[in-house]
Each structure stands twice: as structure tokens, then as C-alpha cells.
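[Solved] Which block belongs to which protein?

Original post:
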Amino acid sequence: MWSSEELERLNEHFQNQPPEALLTWATQTFHPRLALTCSFSGPSGMVLLDMVVRSGLDMTVIFLDTDLLFPETYELAALAEQRYGIPIQRRRPALSLEEQDRQEGPHLYARDPDRCCHLRKVTPLAETLRDYDAWISGIRRDQSNTRATVHLLEWNTRHNLVKINPLAFWSDRQVWTYIHTHRVPYNPLLDQGYPSIGCIPCTRPASASNPRAGRWVGFAKTECGLHTG
């Protein structure tokens, strides 16, 4: 476990440096026990993936596949693997959708989305991260109120590792400026009224001013649970 003093010092050190500097430090410090998760839905993950490849960094890229994602999401994952020439590790839940229906009842996402997210996202991630000492994520402070206090580096008690958020202080404009400058591929649903993209049954169009409003409509839920702890 890293001390709060060590993490505070590192946060201060990297606060005014570009994300690539933090990514390089993370690779030098944690390789090979370092993983980047990319959902192939939001733009931030694609920015990080592009930065990693442009900087010549070696790390594992993990794609959590719930079996309920949009076709556009799967197509982007395949395109990114081909474009960047890196293997993407696709991790799926232990239960198939059919097995989940038998054990939990059909349409679990419509009755208990927290349970569905736990089975299809949270548990697979936890099992995957057992093999790593650091996890790189694309979450940013401006994405939602629940993410408004994230730091560049944090100790994640749930997974017992250092969580690194290189874009924590970036704005939406900075993300899109990078994407257009470097011609980074992104999920086309982002141009079709879906500012926040998850699984098909739990994703609806939303306004850019409140992107998470299109997730889990009808429930007091704005996070899948991956970024808590």
C-alpha cells in the first residue's frame, strides 16, 4: 500500500505536467503489472490509448465486455486493435446472459441494475485486477458530481492497488481537441445524442449538459460501480 503522503507528493508533482508524463512514470514504476481499461464508448479512453501508443509505452489494455454493448462499441474495439497494432484483452463475465437469466431471472438490468452491473462489470474487473499493481482509468472530474474529486493518483482499497487517472483535470474540450488533432477514432454514437454510453438496455440519449442522465433511466443510479472504492 502506498501512503497518503507519497500519493499527495506525486499528485502535486504531476498536476502541471501533461498526461503523457504520468503515463510514462506509471510504466516505469509498475510494468508489467500495469493495466489500462478502455470501454471503447467514451472519448477519454481512446485519448489514453492513443497517448500510450504514441509514447511507445508497454502496458496491458483491458476491454470489459458485458455481452450487452452496442455494435458500434465492438466495432471500435476491433478498429483500435487493428489501427494501433496492440492486443486488447477482452474480459467477459463468468455467466453468459442465458445463465444469468436462469439464475437471476430474465431482464435483471430492468429490475436490479446494480446487481446486473455487479455480475457483468464489477466482478470481472475485480478478478482481472488481481494480477496488477496499478490501474489506469479515463475518468475525469468534469464527467459527473460523483467524480468531481478524483485525483491523478489514488489508492483503491477495493482492488488494493494504485489507481491512476491521467485525464482527471482535463475538460471535455481538451479531450475533443486531442481527438481531432490526432485523428483518434471514437464511438460514432457520441455524435448521435449519446454523450455517455454503456450497455444497450441501460443507455438512452441525453443532453451534453447532463450526460449521465441517459444511463439507468428511472433509477437513482449514475455509476456502474467500477470507479468506487
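(Second protein starts here: sequence line, then its C-alpha cells.)
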Amino acid sequence: MSEPTLVIDDDPSFNAILVRSLERRGYSVWGAGEPAAALALAREFSPTRVVLDLNLNGSSGLALIQELLHIEPDCRIVVLTGYASIATAVDAIKLGAIQYLAKPVEIEAIIAAFEQDEAPDFDVPPSDEPLSVDRLEWEHIQRVLNENDGNISATARALKMHRRTLQRKLSKRPVRI
């Protein structure tokens, strides 16, 4: 096994647990908590697998996908997030990630994502139930936040919403579909 793997997550506890769990399964693993350190480790070790958090201390992990693929073109990137949205999932896959998983996630799901041979199956039949107004609001906020590269103030201005109100909405768990 011993696939060189890079874990990029700004939560030191989650990062350490994930690194340790992958090491126990035979992977060579390095952990980074911020983008600059992650890119330095990627240049040094050329990981073939990357676990990437979507939100890195307020900056978007999506911005790292192309840089990581430039360093190691065969790299398989799995994006993790505590704030899943359709817009960011689509963006992650378009940028080159192989999978997009919502936290909390089991280590087995991450490993399975790395080992899948084909692209993720997004050909899911639409639900007969329409999305709730709360879910539509959540999706719209996530799309505008992504368009503003994770900048809360710019997103609040674009949504014509007070910054604190936006922060309160973002601190809640995503609304169920």
C-alpha cells in the first residue's frame, strides 16, 4: 500500500486523528493545517492521494485543487466539508477532485473514495419532493460564498445581508435536503 498521502485540514485534532488512522492502515501520511504548508509538503513528497478540507481558516480549499494537480498530475483528491452544498460539490469535481464527502466521515469512506476506479456517480434521479425554502437559501448562500472565494464580508454585501447575520447562518449545520 504505502501510498504517499497528504491530509490538509485546519482542525489540528481532526488532522492528527486522520493522519494516525491512515498510518495504521499502511499509508505514508503527512498533515498540514494551512495552504502554504500543504503546498510545501506536496512539492517535497508528491502525494498521490490528498484529503482536503473545503474551509481552511476562512479560505477555500478549492483554490488548492489545481495547484496540487499541477505538482502531482496523478493525484487523487477527496474534498471533505462540514458545510456540504451542491454548488461546492460540483465545483470541486469540475476542478479535479475525485470525491466530495460531508463530515463527519468514516475513514473507510475516505479510503473507498480513493480506491474507486471511476468518476463519482452524480446521475441520481431527482427527488419528487421540492427543496425546502431553507435548503434553497443554504444553497444560494454557498454559491455566492464560493463566488467570493470564501470572503464573508463580500458575500454579505452581495446578498445584501448584515455580516453577522450571514456568519450566524453559516455557523449552523446545513439544512437537510
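Accepted answer:
You had them paired correctly. Confirming on the second one: The first strand starts at residue 4 and ends at 8.
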